[in-house]
């Protein structure tokens, strides 16, 4: 069965060619169910997954491979912490590059711009802009590797059903959808509403609003010793970077 090539039908239409082994893994992780329509690449008629693959109900599932990305269950808080890590780290790097270029090209305009980000209203503007400027860098990492800095630390991978990266275009579109439908553009109160709504959607349906109906899956590292170690390192790193940014802001 693992040597056969299959096509499955998702909500967005006909999916990509995948191996029988990967199809079985998607079923076990809950990414697809027994009613999903599938067929072999060699021209079989469409049928339900259960009808085509009776071996999908084995006596006992084999144990997951140690360290493999085998967990497709929703983990809202891991995803949120990964996103906050990306905002902090990628945002700091991006703003650093923007500031370097701006001061090299037009120092006076750079002073006026960064000065406008002081004060209560300026800090709100800073948050709004940071949520937007991290999109290209985060999309680049996810599109090429399925990972970002935060996703690697918190054990999250965004890939196609065949395990390949989703590509730059799909990653950029996904990040824009997260910005709009997840963060609510960062607008106060609107952002709180969209965050709560996206959390409930992920918890109830097992898929994010921005991934629903798309030809991709979100996988997680099992909560093993490696993942626990990375999270133990990741959370203090996130706090340290945030405190460092606050200290730099007060010194400037």
What is the first-to-last residue Cα distance? 63 Å
Enumerate how many helices there are, as a single number.
Answer: 9
Share of helix, binned? 55-70%
Give the biggest sheet: 4 strands, antiparallel
**Percent of residues in beta strands?**
5-15%
Mean pLDDT, to the nearest integer, reads 85
Organism: Caulobacter zeae
Pfam families: RDD (PF06271)
Protein name: RDD family protein
Keywords: Cell membrane, Membrane, Transmembrane, Transmembrane helix
Can you describe what's shown?
The structure is a single chain. The chain has 252 residues and is an alpha+beta fold. It folds into two domains: 5-56, GYF domain (Dna Ligase, domain 1, 2-Layer Sandwich); 76-251, no CATH class. The chain contains nine helices and six strands; from the N terminus they run E-E-H-E-E-H-H-H-H-H-E-H-H-E-H. The strands form two sheets. A four-stranded antiparallel β-sheet has the order 2-1-3-4.
What is this entry, summarized?
With 252 residues, this protein is of the alpha+beta class. Helix content is 56%, strand content 11%. It has a four-stranded antiparallel β-sheet. Strands 5-6 form a two-stranded antiparallel sheet.
Q: Would you spell out the secondary-structure blueprint of this structure?
A:
Blueprint: E1 5-10, E2 13-19, H1 20-28, E3 37-40, E4 47-48, H2 49-52, H3 76-105, H4 107-115, H5 119-145, H6 149-153, E5 156-159, H7 168-182, H8 190-205, E6 217-220, H9 225-251
Antiparallel strand pairs: 1-2, 1-3, 3-4, 5-6
């Amino acid at each position: 069965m693992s040597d056969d090539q299959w096509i499955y039908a998702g909500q967005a239409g006909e999916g990509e060619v995948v191996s029988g082994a990967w199809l079985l893994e998607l079923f076990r992780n809950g990414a697809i169910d027994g009613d999903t329509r599938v067929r072999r690449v060699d021209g079989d008629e469409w049928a339900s997954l259960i009808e085509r693959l009776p071996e999908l109900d084995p006596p006992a599932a084999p144990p997951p491979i140690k360290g493999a990305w085998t967990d497709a269950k929703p983990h809202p808080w891991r995803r949120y912490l990964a996103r906050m890590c990306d905002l902090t780290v990628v945002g700091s790097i991006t703003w650093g590059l923007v500031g370097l270029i701006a001061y090299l090209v037009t120092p006076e305009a750079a002073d006026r711009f960064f000065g406008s980000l002081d004060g209560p209203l300026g800090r709100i503007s800073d948050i709004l802009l940071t949520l937007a400027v991290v999109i290209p860098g985060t999309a680049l990492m996810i599109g090429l590797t399925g990972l970002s800095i935060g996703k690697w630390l918190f054990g999250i991978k965004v890939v196609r059903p065949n395990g390949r990266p989703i590509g730059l275009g799909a990653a950029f579109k996904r990040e824009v959808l997260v910005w709009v439908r997840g963060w609510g553009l960062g607008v106060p109160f609107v952002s709180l509403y969209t965050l709560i709504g996206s959390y409930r959607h992920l918890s109830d349906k097992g898929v994010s609003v921005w991934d629903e109906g798309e030809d991709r899956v979100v996988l997680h590292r099992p909560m093993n010793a490696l993942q626990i170690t990375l999270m133990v390192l990741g959370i203090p790193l996130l706090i340290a970077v945030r405190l460092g940014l606050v200290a730099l802001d007060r010194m400037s």
